[in-house]
Design a protein that fits this description.
76% of the residues lie in helices and 0% in strands. The chain is mostly helical.
Length: 191
């Protein structure tokens, strides 16, 4: 149970669901941030929301929507807080992975952290998605495809994950499979 505060949890779920839909880039992460910040205000011990917020702050910087480095600074401070207060936990490991991916753009380091986090939560869809994306950034498309297929077994209703599978198949030069998946995606997710 990540929090006893139902209002904080409702905000967290709303923020999380924004990340399951179609790709909206910095607009989507920008909408997640106030929801997560409010959830943390309601429950200052809501570490799950803090971890998600590190990822959202970092994504704003990663996407180039951080002209004054304010999100970067917030990501650094929050990641450091999580690591200090919750050392060797899933939260600390995942926060470091999100930080390495989004702020440092060190995809190998991010992959290493995410694989450690996965040992603690084998079916964490967000961690799996970042593992798949790390593989993509490292040019290891076949490994990314395998992870994407696992994600789809766990969460077949996520439009963003089926789209990511098309990208990975395309990069792996598996064009016929990519096209078939894309056609299936359009039928299932017409938006």
């Amino acid at each position: 149970k990540p929090t006893n505060n139902l209002d904080a949890y409702a905000l967290f779920v709303k923020a999380r669901e924004l990340g399951r839909g179609t790709w909206t880039g910095s607009d989507g992460w920008g909408k997640q941030i106030p929801l997560l910040e409010q959830a943390i205000q309601l429950d200052p011990n809501f570490v799950e929301a803090e971890v998600k917020l590190v990822a959202s702050y970092g994504r704003m910087a990663w996407a180039g929507a951080d002209s004054d480095d304010a999100y970067r600074a917030k990501a650094v401070a929050l990641k450091n807080k999580i690591v200090k207060e919750h050392p060797n936990t899933y939260a600390a490991i995942a926060a470091q992975g999100y930080f390495e991916y989004t702020i440092n753009r060190n995809y190998q380091a991010a992959l290493d952290y995410f694989q450690q986090a996965l040992l603690k939560r084998p079916n964490d869809i967000q961690v799996l998605a970042y593992i798949a994306s790390s593989y993509k950034r490292l040019g290891k498309y076949e490994q990314g495809i395998g992870v994407n297929k696992k994600i789809l077994l766990l969460d077949p209703e996520s439009a963003i994950n089926v789209s990511e599978l098309v990208i990975q198949l395309t990069f792996a030069n598996r064009i016929d499979e990519a096209l078939a998946q894309a056609k299936s995606n359009v039928k299932k997710f017409p938006n």
